[in-house]
Predict the structure.
Amino acid sequence: KNNYEKKKVQLPPTVPYLIPFIGSAVQFGIDPVKFLQEQKKKFGDCFTFKMLGRNMTFCLGSEGNNFVFNVKLKDATAEGAYLKLTRPVFGTEVVYDVENSVFMEQKKFVKDALSTAAFKTYLPTIIQETKQMFMKEFEKSEFTVELFPVLAELTIRTASSCLMGKEIRDQLHSNVAKLFHDLDCGLTPLNVFVEYLPLPRFINRDRANKELTELFLEIIKKRKLLENDPNVKYEKKFDVLESLMNSDYKSGSKMSDVAVSHMMIALLMAGQHTSSTTGSWFLFELAKNPELQKKIREEHSMILTGKTDTPKKDLPDLTFETLKQCTFLDNCLKETLRIHPPIHTVMRLVEQDLNYNGLTIPKGNFLCSGITVGHLDEVKYPDPLKFDPSRHVLLEESGEWTIGNVDIQQKSARNLYLPFGAGRHRCIGEHFAFIQLKTIVATIVNEFDLELVDNKFPEIDYTQLIVLPVKGSLLRFKRRT
Ligand code: HEM
């Protein structure tokens, strides 16, 4: 700091703190959104606070979002911020463990695989998995469950069926689910700063990565043998695994089998809790407001049969085309992601001093965007915690953004609503997540009336990397007759 004072440059205001190394870690850890909103009121859109020996500089507002999401690669990097966290979990040769240009090609391979043709094949699988889970495993006419673990299980089943390949789905009942769990335990906020804590978890995490990699390598080997066997008619698959195995870098080389395996692990981890927590908040919001459930059913029935009140037994299954037309459902999902974005903060490591509106953000700081703070902006979204899907009709009409339907390109990061990020690190799983979540929710709402238990809406748990409902949050399902 002294050096910068000597240079007579102005640093962002610093949030005062009592304990030197810890800084504001406790307040930020307990409720990051409230903490950031309070600092915004005191210091404006750009400020720095200390956390575990690091300087965290937040740039808020649409201008701040644009600055963080479109920062140049030479100025600040995601790999600097996330590598410690992700390398042990995903493995080497992928994502932040390679040059950014290589990762961009890897992202493109996945994006190409998540095509409309592939989505068409995924939809019946997602419906079948949802029915299997909710209609077979929970046979009773009325039941109450802790929702998040149930949706986590359903997400892993649907994502593995669609993205990972049938072989992985078939092995979910064996040790694969446990391996995912052990990897997951290595993804805590603490691991952003320290790679090897807490000790027992990192041993399990590293073993899980090794075993899962071996499992994928085995599957790849078997597929290659079948493909090259002249006596077998090889059936083309629409899963991402197949697509990665066949993709070519611009240089003409292919991803190594290890890289393909690690990329599959990375995708599963990136999509698992983000989707299952969004699905949980979505159902909790619907349970709070039965009118929304009714409107979703009416839209569903209207699109499938031309009438709003067709009995559920007479409704055909949703298809890719009919799902696309469910715009009210779409807007409910967008509103869920506005109030409950699973990722509340994104980070980059500053690689050389940055200038932001006359303030110098020093090399070594973390440059951060607070997604949820933007989503709850009181000017842009009056009464911000009110669940109001109609906000998105207006936003879409104004051309501000479209998502989830056909055009999933969001042109600008100069925006307050960025649940999937923006710029070079923008999410590639967004379209898949929309299809998966809309299908799951439509299938459930059609079959059940949803109710909060004791009228209690879940509290938020910010202690994990992804924003979850607190443990033990219950939802009641009543089968519609
Ligand atoms: C990136 C959110 C589902 C794969 C991101 C980012 C956000 C995000 C905010 C930007 C991170 C940053 O800038 O640092 C979400 C939400 C999801 C979701 C809200 C669901 C509701 C998925 C799924 C997949 C996935 C299903 C995989 C199929 C990725 C990948 C990146 C990413 C590969 C790129 C990371 C990078 O370039 O650094 N996601 N995601 N996501 N997401 Fe998602």
Q: What stands out?
A: The CA atoms of residues 249 and 364 lie 32 Å apart. Residues 78, 107, 267, 270-271, 274-275, 278, 341-343, 346, 419-421, 425, 427-429, 432-433 surround protoporphyrin IX containing FE (CB under 6 Å). The first strand starts at residue 46 and ends at 51.
